[in-house]
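README, section 4: Worked example with a bound small molecule

Sections 1 through 3 covered apo chains. Here we extend the same pipeline to holo records, where the ligand is supplied as SMILES alongside the sequence. The molecule in this example is magnesium ion. Nothing else about the input changes; the structure line simply encodes the ligand pose together with the chain.
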Amino acid sequence: MTANLATAVLLDIDDTLVDTRGAFRHALTEVAAEYLDAGANPEAVLAHWRDDRGGWYRAHTRGEMTHREQRKRRANDLHATFGGPTLDDEAYDIWDAGFERHFRAGWRAFEDAAPLLNALDERGIPYGAVSNADSAYQVLKLSACGLQRVPMLVGVDTFGVGKPDPRVFVEGCRLLAVEPAVTAYVGDEPDLDAGGAARAGLHGVWLDRPGTRRAGHDTAPDGTSRVESLLSVLELLS
Ligand SMILES: [Mg+2]
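The generated complex, written as structure tokens:
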């Protein structure tokens, strides 16, 4: 992107404003202790979960699978890989209640989230969240992390599909009353976030926090910017 053009900012939530990876680490540590082989490597368990190698969360964001179904499949794939039992519906409900409780207990904002919002507020730059999770759930998450000033604009429930569908990015702009061409979209996934935003006519910005990449996330798509912290986003704004 050409520097100094964006005058509005749309933000991803998970692994962008909120350290969701850390919250998954917290939840999966508890899961591993209760369900998995004692020798399961915690980092391998976390990477397996985040990689979503079956593509089930992606299927959920295309409207093809419920949230419950995608998480149950991922739980059983995790168990199959690391020595846990197969979960039927009843066992999964118990598993998920524990997982969700520990996941929520791990929700934290990144240290650069509030400073970015402070700077945007000072400059009068409008911002809001566009996320591939359920809107009401994300409002809860933002509030738990002290980020309730971020308006939750578009969730996977808005259209029944999520990023990279261009409609969700364009709808975020419409709700902020800004043009896509002058709006930056910032997210941690290079193709789904930065590439998807660019294809929808926004400035796609890949937040590539050091040491947190998922498998296959190696390069910034054409026409997008790459930053290593949220505060670097300020350098891309007019
Ligand atoms: Mg994300």
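What to look for in the output: Residues 12, 14-16, 187-189 surround magnesium ion (CB under 6 Å). The mean pLDDT is 95.

Section 5 describes how to batch many such records.
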